[in-house]
Write a structure and sequence with these properties.
- With 164 residues, the protein is α+β, with helices and mostly antiparallel strands.
- It has a single domain, classed as Pleckstrin-homology domain (PH domain)/Phosphotyrosine-binding domain (PTB) (PH-domain like, Roll), CATH 2.30.29.
- Helix content is 25%, strand content 38%.
- The strands form two sheets. A four-stranded antiparallel sheet has the order 1-2-3-4, covered by helices on one side. A three-stranded antiparallel sheet has the order 5-6-7, covered by helices on one side.
- Helix 1 runs antiparallel to helix 2.
- The radius of gyration is 17 Å and the shape is globular.
- The chain starts with a helix and ends in a 16-residue tail after the last helix.
Length: 164
């Protein structure tokens, strides 16, 4: 899959965060810039913005040479590119717990954190999602590590069914 094909397919999901007109233009510029980018694997999700109202739309994709990380909100865009050769580690951590309080309220923690460190121990990209996506994240981690180690991987079928 190419960058153009991916960004075309993700556009309806992207629109659910109600991006500003300017951010929609940025999305189109990124799609055009990455039109021929051959994707080895990817991750995307929409999740509640922890710092403001609305939602974030996250996309991480990588080729044999580069990893691109995007974070869109209604009014902001963050775009980080990392050389595959500069990635040091990829770590998955899961936390699932249930805690019942005296008033019988139960709080469930169901989190998965996928961390990619690069350029030294102090720099990293962190993705947070639900543990139900564990097998997907494990596949992405395995494919990323194959790229880091120089093992040529074929493009996988990651099935862009709406996971949001």
């Amino acid at each position: 899959m190419t960058g153009k094909e991916l960004f075309d397919e993700l556009l309806p999901d992207f629109m659910t965060i109600l991006p500003s007109e300017k951010n929609l233009k940025f999305y189109q510029v990124i799609k055009k810039t990455l039109k021929d980018f051959e994707i080895v694997d990817l991750f995307y999700q929409r999740r509640k913005n922890e710092c403001a109202e609305g939602f974030n739309f996250e996309i991480m994709l990588f080729s044999h040479e580069l990893l691109h990380d995007f974070l869109f909100t209604k009014t902001t865009v963050s775009f980080l590119t990392v050389s595959i050769g500069s990635i040091n580690t990829a770590e998955i951590e899961t936390i699932y717990s249930e805690k019942t309080y005296e008033n019988e309220d139960t709080i469930i923690t169901d989190n998965l954190t996928f961390t990619i460190s690069y350029g030294g121990d102090r720099q990293g990209i962190i993705y947070k999602t639900a543990t139900k996506r564990f097998s997907e994240m494990l596949r992405i981690k395995s494919n990323l590590l194959k790229e880091i180690c120089g093992i040529n991987t074929s493009v996988v079928n990651y099935g862009i069914a709406s996971k949001i």
